[in-house]
């Protein structure tokens, strides 16, 4: 038996005690560690569950390209199992495409060496997934240094949504750009107000309207399109539209481009985004409305002035308008009409006043007229025969708004006039058919419309041919067979064309084969037609031919007479010269001294010879002038001197009758170019004629003046004057005129001869006389 000393026992007890304490501590520590390990295991399981359920897959890539990843990575990459090395991410046509893998591998190398972050999107080759890879160097303590940590996110839905959103954003951007371009290109001013109702956007039309430099200038200065005024503040109108939440519009005047225009301003609330607005130029619309209003007023005023009765009913069949003629025609009071009675009541009132046609069933008749409001056609027309015998023409016109316009025209007088017209037409037809002239009426298109029996008989045409209303060229062809010269048929066609188209009248003559002659005329009528008339002038042609032959015979006789007078004048001059010569010898005492009685006889013979010689000279001058062989000596002539000498030449005759001769010759008379002897004869004849017809103690005036072109002489007397018949014969050759005092009659050669001498000088001689007032003869002579 082993015995221990006390010291050893004490030491052993101490050791046992220490060992027991250590065991207890170890047991306690183990239990604690066990408990901590359980908690760690639970924590690990929880973290693994969280990582497994996380949207991202964690992949550790060590420096030797070994990787740690969950099995989900294989599913996402389309691999059969989770890869153990980096190259397993792309192998056998699976996993990542080679290009994407190389790019990802390069990113991992950079992250391991430089610590650069990784961000890349990849798409497995045999999968529709889109994976986003993010990562960088692994945090210390996670694994050994030189590793990289990657997070794979399945962004398939996110990418699809992002693509959709990007596409939507792109579409909205394009729509916004298009809308902005549309607003900018809009020809009407448009603007936008922010929440504070200040302008934030205006288009070019707005800038031009307010005559600003640009949109920034308008927004900066807050230039409003319409001037603010009481009751039309644009900001207040925008605020009101925003408060109601509904668009508002108003028409206000504004100055646009220097012109005063009417604008319709529209404010559109956009909620919290502010208020948008636009302006439409309605100046033309306002003018059109004003013009339409004026037109409507003018139309009603015009309808009120019409002689036809007019009544207008609204869609509810109430009377809205009537004119004065309607009120008079149907004997209705304006007080009752102004109440707007209904259509049926108006018809009943017409019936009461006897202004409706008689109808057995008035209700049915009224219902039929009520259908006028809904008639599908343009309008209806009726003829009403009233009990008093009046005739009314009624026009019912449905209106677009459902109303009805009625027009009542009193045609009583027209019916009476139509009856009278029909009677007149029958009378005209009978008269037309019995005219002695052949008459045809051609329309504007050249067709024969009317004709009488004389027309048909003249051209020997069939009634059936005329009834077909042939054209004028066909008629001319048929009529040419009756003409003596068929080519003259073209004249008929031309005359009708001129009368219908050029509206001119033409005349002509035609001869028929039968020997008859017709004078025709084409006269344009007011209605555009042409009247063609033919008058048988066969008898007048024969009479005309006989008269022409007689006239030629008379002209030949006149020429023979003139030649005879001229020859006789020459033949008479020879014996007259002998008589005058022997009488002068007797008067001169060549045959001895004569007894007083014989001397008186000789003096009478000499006076008669002188008068007869003058008369023969006048006859010769007159016949020569008529034959155009009057000799004229043209040289400068002092017409004033000649007039004075002529006045002195009638001094004895004037003194014998105690006639007062007043001579007034102006210096303006001057000289003319002519024959002095013939001009003296003109004045002698006129003065002698005045002295002969002026009574004793009468008065004769000789006046003369001139201008640069002409000389005028006036010889007037206060003798008995002449009647119109005597004035017409005053210039006839050899006309006989009664001398003053009833001393017989004499040949009136003075005035005819004076006129021919004056006309031979290119002048004119005119006579003015009134019975009991005297006679005035005016001579006008050109200077050249």
UniProtKB/TrEMBL annotation:
Domain Histidine kinase: 567-784
Pfam families assigned to the protein according to its UniProt record, in alphabetical order: HATPase_c, HisKA, PAS_7
Gene Ontology molecular function, alphabetical: ATP binding
Annotated catalysed reactions: ATP + protein L-histidine = ADP + protein N-phospho-L-histidine
Keyword Disulfide bond: no
PROSITE patterns hit by this protein: HIS_KIN
CDD domains named in the record: HATPase, HisKA
E.C. code: 2.7.13.3
Keywords: ATP-binding, Kinase, Nucleotide-binding, Phosphoprotein, Transferase, Two-component regulatory system
Enzyme class label: transferase
Gene3D superfamilies: 1.10.287.130, Histidine kinase-like ATPase, C-terminal domain, PAS domain
Highest taxon listed in the record's lineage: Bacteria
Name listed for the protein in its UniProt record: histidine kinase
Lineage: Bacteria, Pseudomonadati, Pseudomonadota, Alphaproteobacteria, Sphingomonadales
């Amino acid at each position: 038996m082993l015995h221990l000393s006390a010291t050893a026992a004490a030491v052993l007890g101490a050791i046992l005690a220490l060992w027991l304490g250590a065991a207890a501590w170890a047991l306690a520590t183990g239990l604690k560690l066990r408990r901590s390990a359980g908690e760690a295991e639970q924590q690990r399981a929880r973290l693994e569950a969280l990582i497994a359920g996380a949207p991202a897959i964690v992949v550790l890539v060590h420096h030797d390209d070994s990787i740690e990843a969950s099995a989900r990575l294989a599913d996402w990459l389309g691999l059969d199992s989770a890869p153990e090395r980096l190259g397993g991410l792309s192998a056998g046509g699976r996993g990542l495409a080679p290009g994407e893998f190389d790019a990802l591998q390069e990113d991992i190398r950079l992250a391991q060496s430089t610590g650069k972050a990784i961000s890349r999107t990849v798409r497995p080759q045999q999968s529709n997934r889109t994976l986003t890879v993010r990562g960088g160097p692994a945090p210390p303590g996670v694994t050994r240094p030189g590793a990289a940590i990657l997070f794979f996110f399945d962004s398939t839905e996110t990418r699809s949504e992002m693509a959709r959103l990007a596409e939507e954003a792109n579409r909205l951007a394009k729509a916004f750009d298009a809308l902005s371009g549309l607003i900018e290109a809009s020809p009407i001013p448009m603007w936008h107000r922010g929440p504070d109702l200040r302008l934030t956007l205006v288009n070019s039309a707005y800038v031009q309207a307010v005559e600003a430099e640009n949109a920034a200038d308008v927004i900066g200065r807050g230039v409003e399109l319409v001037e603010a005024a009481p009751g039309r503040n644009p900001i207040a109108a925008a605020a009101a539209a925003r408060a109601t939440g509904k668009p508002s519009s108003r028409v206000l005047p504004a100055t646009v481009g220097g012109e005063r225009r009417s604008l319709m301003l529209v404010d559109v609330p956009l909620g919290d985004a502010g208020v948008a607005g636009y302006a439409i130029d309605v100046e033309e619309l306002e003018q059109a409305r004003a013009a339409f209003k004026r037109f409507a007023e003018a139309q009603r005023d015009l309808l009120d002035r019409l002689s036809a009765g007019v009544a207008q009913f609204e869609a509810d069949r109430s009377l809205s308008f009537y004119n004065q003629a309607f009120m008079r025609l149907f004997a209705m009071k304006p007080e009752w009409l102004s109440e707007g009675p209904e259509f049926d009541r108006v018809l009943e009132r017409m019936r009461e006043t006897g202004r409706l046609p008689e109808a057995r069933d008035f209700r049915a008749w009224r219902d039929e007229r009520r259908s006028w409001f809904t008639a599908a056609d343009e309008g209806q027309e009726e003829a009403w025969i009233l009990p008093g015998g009046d005739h009314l023409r009624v026009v019912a016109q449905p209106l677009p708004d459902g109303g009805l316009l009625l027009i009542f025209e009193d045609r009583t007088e027209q019916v009476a006039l139509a009856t009278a017209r029909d009677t007149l037409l029958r009378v005209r037809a009978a008269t037309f058919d019995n005219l002695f002239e052949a008459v045809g009426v051609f329309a504007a298109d050249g067709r024969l419309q009317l004709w009488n029996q004389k027309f048909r008989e003249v051209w020997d045409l069939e009634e059936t041919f005329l009834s077909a209303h042939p054209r004028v060229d066909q008629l001319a062809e048929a009529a040419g067979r009756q003409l003596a010269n068929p080519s003259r048929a073209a004249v008929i066609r031309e005359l009708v064309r001129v009368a219908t188209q050029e509206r001119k009248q033409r005349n002509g003559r035609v001869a028929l084969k039968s020997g008859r002659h017709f004078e025709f005329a084409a006269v344009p009528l007011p209605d555009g037609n042409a009247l063609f008339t033919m008058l048988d002038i066969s008898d007048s042609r024969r009479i005309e031919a006989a008269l022409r032959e007689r006239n030629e015979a008379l002209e030949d006789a006149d020429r023979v007479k003139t030649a005879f007078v001229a020859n006789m004048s020459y033949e008479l001059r020879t014996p007259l010269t002998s008589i005058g010569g022997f009488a002068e010898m007797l008067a001169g005492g060549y045959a001895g001294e004569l007894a007083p009685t014989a001397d008186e006889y000789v003096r009478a013979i000499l006076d008669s010879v002188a008068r007869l010689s003058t008369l023969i000279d006048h006859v010769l001058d007159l016949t020569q002038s008529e034959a155009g062989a009057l000799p004229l000596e043209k040289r400068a002539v002092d017409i004033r001197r000649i007039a004075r000498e002529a006045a002195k030449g009638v001094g004895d005759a004037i003194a014998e009758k105690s006639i007062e001769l007043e001579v007034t010759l102006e210096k303006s008379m001057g000289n003319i170019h002519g024959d002095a002897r013939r001009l003296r004869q003109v004045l002698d004849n006129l003065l002698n004629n005045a002295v002969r017809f002026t009574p004793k103690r009468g008065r004769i005036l000789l006046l003369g003046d001139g201008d640069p072109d002409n000389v005028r002489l006036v010889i007037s007397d206060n003798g008995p004057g002449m009647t119109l018949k005597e004035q017409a014969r005053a210039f006839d050759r050899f006309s006989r005129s009664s001398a003053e005092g009833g001393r017989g009659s004499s040949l009136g050669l003075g005035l005819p001869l004076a006129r021919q001498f004056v006309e031979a000088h290119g002048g004119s001689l005119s006579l003015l006389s009134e019975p009991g007032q005297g006679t005035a003869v005016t001579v006008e002579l050109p200077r050249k």
